[in-house]
Automatic annotation (TrEMBL):
Keyword Membrane: no
Annotated source species: Mucor velutinosus
SMART domains in alphabetical order: DTW
Region of interest (Disordered), residue spans: 239-267
E.C. number(s) listed in UniProt: 2.5.1.25
Organism lineage string: Eukaryota, Fungi, Fungi incertae sedis, Mucoromycota, Mucoromycotina
All copies of domain DTW, residue ranges: 47-230
Nucleus recorded as keyword: yes
Protein name, per record: tRNA-uridine aminocarboxypropyltransferase 1
Keyword terms, alphabetized: Nucleus, S-adenosyl-L-methionine, Transferase, tRNA processing
Reactions catalysed according to its record: a uridine in tRNA + S-adenosyl-L-methionine = a 3-[(3S)-3-amino-3-carboxypropyl]uridine in tRNA + S-methyl-5'-thioadenosine + H(+)
Entry's Gene Ontology BP terms: tRNA processing
Length: 267
């Protein structure tokens, strides 16, 4: 390992306080140990961590990563213009490999009983899980794409109109990519995770964190981006990002602490 690689690994090993620290997510040391790309044994593409085309773990043993068993099968319908390398839905496929299928629109699976399928999509008819009887569904569909692409899929796929619509509580995204929407538009894996978390809270209470590892890769990449920009303060993060304070520079935390100390009343 070169000195440069060792320095990068050391930075990754530093603890970063982040929005996912309270979740029960497995240790990601196996990802931190990966310093170079590897060849996917199936498609021969050179990738890092996993192959986003074959949905296979690359460069490490699958047994070193967590697995999640989902209570309801998940079908992800990905817009054909959504780049595979940018899709976070792949995280769910790798972590819950037996319970997730990804389809590229306009191809969709054969939904023999669409009325018993939940479509995660907002709208006047969308309900939260607390208002949906558990026995009324046995399949879940999530759309993967930009907001415009998602609306195109739902408006032009008749079978989706027959499904029950479900929504989740509003939350702030932690996605690092620029989106031309407000910060309550979640990355696909965030939406998937919160839906299954709400499933656990609604039908399996008390929730014990059993679906938290759906965020395994997402947390790792979030921390990787934070540590990279924190270490290279001259590097400019996207000025278009809707959250102007997205990178949590360490000195900002110190300034806040100093501000709090200075604001305390003197005795």
């Amino acid at each position: 390992m070169s000195q440069e690689e060792a320095n990068k690994k050391r930075k990754l090993d530093q603890t970063i306080k982040g929005p996912f620290d309270q979740l029960k997510i497995a240790d990601d040391q196996a990802l931190k140990d990966i310093q170079q790309r590897s060849t996917c044994p199936t498609c021969k593409k050179t990738v890092k961590y996993f192959c986003y085309k074959c949905h296979k773990v690359v460069g490490m043993e699958r047994s070193t990563l967590p697995s999640v068993k989902l209570p309801v099968h998940l079908d992800v319908i990905k817009h054909h213009k959504e780049l595979d390398g940018k899709s976070t839905a792949i995280h769910a496929k790798i972590i819950a490999q037996d319970d997730v299928d990804i389809h590229t629109w306009p191809e969709v699976p054969d939904f023999t009983d669409p009325e018993r399928t939940l479509l995660l999509f907002p709208g006047p008819s969308a309900k939260q899980l607390t208002d949906i009887p558990r026995e009324s569904f046995d399949r879940i569909v999530v759309i993967d794409g930009t907001w415009i692409q998602a609306k195109q899929i739902t408006n032009n796929t008749p079978i989706l109109k027959k499904m029950q619509r479900v929504t989740i509580a509003p939350r702030k995204t932690h996605f690092w990519r620029f989106q031309n929407v407000d910060d309550q538009h979640l990355a696909t894996i965030e939406a998937i995770y919160y839906l299954y978390r709400e499933f656990g809270e609604t039908y399996e209470a008390p929730y014990d964190g059993k679906y938290d590892n759906l965020m395994f890769y997402y947390k790792f990449f979030y921390n990787l981006i934070q540590s990279t920009y924190q270490a290279q303060k001259s590097a400019k993060f996207s000025h278009r990002h809707q959250q102007k304070d997205y990178i949590k520079y360490r000195q900002d935390g110190k300034k806040e602490k100093d501000k709090e100390e200075n604001s305390k009343p003197t005795s």
